[in-house]
Write a structure and sequence with these properties.
This protein is α/β, with parallel strands linked by helices. Helix content is 44%, strand content 20%.
Length: 400
């Protein structure tokens, strides 16, 4: 049974292991409320997952430790298991999906675990880990559907209650549901008036779908940049906890997640992975009722691959109106590019890429297409540029 005493026990056990992450005031995330960030991306392994993994392993019997441990993970639980197991001299093997970010794979290896890459997504890695448990006799460390793991994650809830008196709500990412189960149980047990909101990626809404149907459902597929919460099916324990203690579950799109990642970088110099930024995206885009409230967004992790980060920043810039591409149909004659460039420059934007295409079966024989990539300030400036181009007689074919 998950109890408040167990969460307090986890808090005591984890004191010498984990970092008690500070709250960061973030007034620009949503000016209509008081937003604070709980930056678990600054945790010792770059994610909250180390809390649950370390507490679970601390509770194993000597016989269970002797057999070695096996785990499955989208990447962050893997590092928590590796860190804790290595510290206690326990052999660890972690199954990761083969599309896991390279940074997470290499970090897991560097912490002392053996890594087995499994074709597919997290759920495929989970299935293979269970097969290895049965075949080799390993002790299985579940990433979320385990009461000791949930208790470890619940220590975040205890910290929040201590750090922010008068807190009205907390927004928490959901994948399998271990984090929100622990946080919600701790907070609701001590102050049931505080709202607990969960957030999933729109491409992986397994918990939201399950709660809305009143039973555990398994998604056919998941697709999102938030790989850490790309889970097809919630756990039994976590589903029950969410039913009892979570006030609402919402979803955010990949574009909204990208915008949140960009805001955290620019405004607070914090690197968050997609899964870690969904809570911030929910607050930014008013997915939950936070107006006038004192709200904490749990930034659950920051282990994002650098290559993915560059693409995410690009998406975030477009979503925020900081980057724009426009394709113009014009007559192929001298001075056209100069005139278009002057209009854009007069509006204060910067052209960073130019592509001129003469040959096209759809254009006039004397026509051409001009595709421009621009750095812009906001959507208002983009609209101004488009308007002035059209007033000047140019035909905009497509823009983004």
């Amino acid at each position: 049974m998950l109890t408040l005493d167990k969460i307090y026990q986890a808090s005591y056990v984890l004191k010498p292991v984990i970092r008690r992450t500070d709250l960061i005031y973030a007034p620009r995330i949503n000016p209509n409320c008081q937003i604070y960030l709980k930056p678990e991306n600054l945790q010792v392994t770059g994610s909250f997952k180390v809390r649950g993994a370390c507490f679970k392993i601390s509770q194993l019997t000597p016989e269970e430790k002797q057999r070695g441990v096996v785990a499955c993970s989208a990447g962050n639980h893997a590092q928590g298991v590796a860190l804790s197991a290595t510290a206690q001299g326990i052999k660890s093997l972690v199954c990761l999906p083969d599309n896991a970010p390279i940074s997470k794979v290499e970090a897991t290896k560097s912490l002392g675990a053996d890594v087995c890459l499994v074709e597919g997504v997290y759920d495929d890695a989970y299935k293979h880990a269970l097969e290895l448990r049965d075949e080799k006799g390993y002790t299985f460390i579940h990433p979320f559907d385990d009461e000791d793991v949930i208790a470890g994650q619940g220590t975040i809830g205890l910290e929040l209650l201590d750090q922010l008196p008068g807190m009205d709500a907390v927004i928490v990412p959901i994948g399998g549901g271990g984090l929100i189960s622990g946080v919600a149980f701790a907070i609701k047990s001590l102050n049931p008036d505080i709202k607990v909101y969960g957030v999933q990626a729109s491409g992986a809404p397994s918990m939201q779908e399950s709660i809305s149907h009143g039973k555990i459902l398994r998604l056919d597929s998941v697709r999102t940049i938030a790989d850490g919460i790309a889970v097809k099916e919630p756990g039994i324990h976590t589903f029950d906890c969410c039913q009892k203690y979570v006030d609402d579950i919402v979803t955010v799109t990949d574009d909204e997640i990208s915008t949140a990642i960009l805001a955290l970088i620019e405004q607070h110099k914090l690197i968050a992975e997609g899964a870690g930024a969904v809570s911030v995206a929910a607050a930014m885009f008013n997915k939950v009722p936070v107006e006038g409230k004192k709200v904490v967004c749990v930034v659950s992790g920051g282990n994002i691959d650098v290559n993915i980060l560059s693409r995410v920043i690009g998406r975030g810039l477009q979503m925020a109106g900081r980057a724009c591409s426009v394709t113009i149909e014009l007559v192929d004659k001298p001075g056209q590019l100069q005139h278009v460039s002057k209009i854009i420059a007069d509006c204060g934007a910067n052209v960073v890429s130019v592509h001129h295409e003469r040959v096209s079966h759809t254009a006039d024989i004397n026509g051409c297409y001009l595709r421009l990539e621009m750095e812009t300030r906001n959507q208002k400036q983009i609209n101004e540029i488009k308007q002035k181009l059209m007033v000047a007689g140019y035909k905009i074919i497509e823009n983004s």
